[in-house]
Amino acid sequence: LDPALLRAGRFDRHIVVDAPDQRGREEILKIHAKNKPLEPDVDLKALSKRTPGFTGADLANLLNEAALLAARLNKKKVAMAEMSEAIERIVAGPAKKGRIMSERERDLVAYHESGHAMLAHLLPGADPVVKVSIVGRGRAGGYTLMVPEDDRRYRYSTKSEIMNEIIVALGGRVAEELVLGEISTGAGMDLERVSKTARKMVTEYGMSELGPMTFGRSQEEQVFLGRDISRDRNYSEEVAAKIDEEVHKIVTAAHDRARQMLSDNVDKLHKLAQTLKERETVEGDELEGILADTAEASRAGARGAQTAATRGPGSESPAPSAGDARGTLAAIEERLKSGGKREPNPEGAPA
Description:
This protein folds into 2 domains: 20-92, Helicase, Ruva Protein, domain 3, CATH 1.10.8.60; 103-337, CATH 1.20.58.760. It is flat and about 65 Å long. It starts with 21 loop residues before the first helix and ends in a 14-residue tail after the last helix. 53% of the residues lie in helices and 5% in strands. It is built from 12 helices and 5 strands.
């Protein structure tokens, strides 16, 4: 819409309709499920937790897609399996089951997805991994399905959470480097997301050495009008160069952290990748079992951090562990202050 139409006295009442929260999604699912025969194992509350960010139309599509899947299998009722498949179809696209992969490509995709999954388990605050697969969907050769535990991630994020997201996104490329000795185009979308997120940290969120300020003027006043928000540059070439430098520091430090953590857990990385090559899909208890040691180490680190926090000011706290989100952020910030230089970790340093 032309901004002139939105001035006072014209279309001046703007109503923003956000995507429904978890309770709202459950109620919407109940409405659309009324005319669908469901198996007893279908848990609408569980489905509402697995669909953060879904709109009412997405949820209606979910029920319809699940019903179609059940009909193709000659089922009289829709089961939870069809619901789960419908969610994955909406999020990532239909599975490309007929595609034949070479052994080299299977290795590449298996280690790429294992890298994402490993780091998501190691970093507290990252979205929990519920499924890893090397069966392609949409444009992706494989996928790691991560489901946020709550809707808060879609409103506010802390600096440590954003840094962890960047580390997890780099996990696929880093795993390729670490194990296969070369990189591929498979990380293209990951790198695009990483670059965009790191630049937002610098230019919009004030999360860099440039200080608590924003750079650039927003060209669009309202997000809900359906246009992308672009930013008009209102700073010098010198500042632009500093912004690029800060973005590079953030990405480089996150890359180094991801490589360190995967190197310290390379045995688990090999185990998950090998299982993916054999089974193609790993989820549920099997996935938890493979990553049990790393997940337990992560939780132990988080518990240690919580214990240290209760000691009060002036007390010494133990060195952060690999699973401690604050330890991860501190390590990254230390590298940022040193100019993002890659240096080997001292012997015995935490992962």
